[in-house]
Amino acid sequence: MALHSAGFVDVRCASSTPTRASHDESELFCMISPETRALIRRYFFAEHWRIGTIAAELGVHPDTVRHAIESERFRSAPPMRASLAEPYLAFVRQTLEQHPRLRATRIHAMLRDRGYSGSVVQLRRAVARLRPQKCEPFLQLHILPGEQAQVDWAHFGHVLVGRAKRALSCFVMTLSYSRALYLEFFFDQTMENFLAGTSTASRLGVDNHASFSTTTSKVSCSNVAATRSSSIPVCSS
User: What is the pTM of this model?
Assistant: First the structure.
């Protein structure tokens, strides 16, 4: 441990493993104080001193200076070797477009017949990158205010009415734009109750809720079998 003129401590330790010939006599950096590290960085980045000049001025090892300025970050990464699968990527892409679920092992066998000498592990990386992604089908709706309401039935189990056990269903109307809800309970899911719920929702819209107004032009029904129509106009009452 050495104490230099600036009053900072430079601690170095001998390497426990052999290094390259140019560093046989050097000692590896272990720890310096934050003040010394800040001073090294100021000399290097602000004053543009060389590494050897900073090491001589502060009495530290050049490796200590390199570590403090993080010189490894400025070294360009070695060029990546060309992949053996690179000449075959166009064939792999075309094959996956025609057969998206084809396994990498099968593609590997096809490429071996075409001169590919790489491993299947390397090919799997390329296949995973080139395989078309599955997209869930969906319909995106663009609805204006008051243009459409969506209707469906919900089942709420059974209730006792006197001694009878009756199924309880809920008529649900949702405005497509504002997502406002109207609910009404019935003992069955008949067309009569469907029309009654639609009519009541429209009437209450005029009296209590501006969203459920008679300007709603369509009712989109999920349960087509129950209503026997996929689009029923809402009439004024």
Answer: 0.37
